[in-house]
Inverse folding.
């Protein structure tokens, strides 16, 4: 089933994002994490390309998730790829029965010797168009940045970049992580006033490690609330207490978003399950998710 099909049902979608581990032991641990989350009935699970793994590793991991009966979405990036590379990955996606892809330009590699292939994909919209022309039945999700892309911080430009992807054939978009809901609401208002009706699924990362998450928030341009930073700082050496704060904060975020009509929540899990499980159960108790 595609993500668009799931959205038509009207109930909020709850999805989880993972990345391919570097080692066989890590992969076994990840499959245990996915098994632990499986009883929650996730709407879909996506797998990124982080960790230096080839795109085929992402596709094969999504294939294993599909075998568990969970709809899966494979991430694909275009910044370092040629059309031949992407066509080969698309063939594998279709062969594995994957019906959802998350289409991204990808981060610019830090290698000073890196150069984009001359015949490659300059923007995510170019990659969306390439895939849409070759696989019209696939569901294509993309990324958006409510606080502006880290490379530009230009809110108006972010709307136009999303428009280009929609015009190229994007079906829905998932936000970069954010910790202040006002940024999501303002972004959705901006794109609606610009005539874009595409579904916008909020992407949230439960905050369990202030050192790691503050750095990630800085890199992706997300505002990190001082009140939250202070609370986590006081619990720097208390993992259980930090987990409790993460669950409380993100539960409040989710509840406000869902009550305001957000089409779902996409959790950036960092391949961990405890915080996500606890938040999910909290939302069920509040009647925001079906049992």
């Amino acid at each position: 089933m595609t993500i668009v099909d799931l959205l038509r049902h009207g109930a909020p979608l709850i999805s989880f994002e993972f990345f391919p581990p570097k080692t066989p032991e890590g992969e076994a641990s990840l499959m245990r994490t996915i098994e632990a989350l499986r009883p929650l009935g996730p709407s879909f699970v996506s797998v990124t390309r982080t960790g230096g793994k080839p795109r085929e590793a992402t596709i094969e991991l999504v294939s294993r998730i599909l075998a568990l009966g969970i709809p899966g979405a494979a991430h694909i990036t275009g910044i370092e790829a040629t059309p031949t590379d992407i066509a080969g990955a698309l063939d594998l996606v279709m062969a594995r029965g994957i019906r959802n892809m998350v289409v991204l330009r990808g981060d610019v590699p830090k290698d000073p010797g890196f150069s984009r292939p001359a015949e490659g994909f300059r923007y995510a919209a170019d990659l969306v168009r390439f895939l849409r022309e070759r696989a019209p039945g696939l569901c294509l999700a993309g990324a958006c940045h409510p606080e502006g892309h880290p490379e530009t911080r230009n809110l108006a430009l972010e709307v136009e970049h999303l428009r280009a992807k929609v015009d190229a054939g994007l079906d829905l978009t998932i936000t970069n992580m954010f910790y202040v809901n006002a940024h999501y609401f303002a972004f959705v208002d901006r794109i609606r006033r610009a005539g874009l009706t595409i579904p916008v699924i909020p992407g949230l990362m439960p905050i369990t490690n202030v050192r790691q998450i503050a750095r990630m928030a800085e890199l992706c341009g997300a505002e990190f609330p001082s009140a939250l930073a202070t609370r986590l700082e006081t619990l720097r050496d208390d993992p259980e207490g930090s987990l409790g704060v993460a669950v409380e904060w993100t539960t409040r975020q989710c509840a406000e978003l869902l009550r305001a009509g957000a089409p779902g929540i996409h959790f950036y899990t960092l391949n961990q399950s405890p915080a996500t499980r606890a938040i999910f159960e909290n939302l069920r108790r509040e009647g925001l998710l079906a049992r």
Strands lie at 13-18, 44-47, 72-77, 100-104, 139-144, 172-177, 200-204, 264-268. The chain has eleven helices and eight strands.
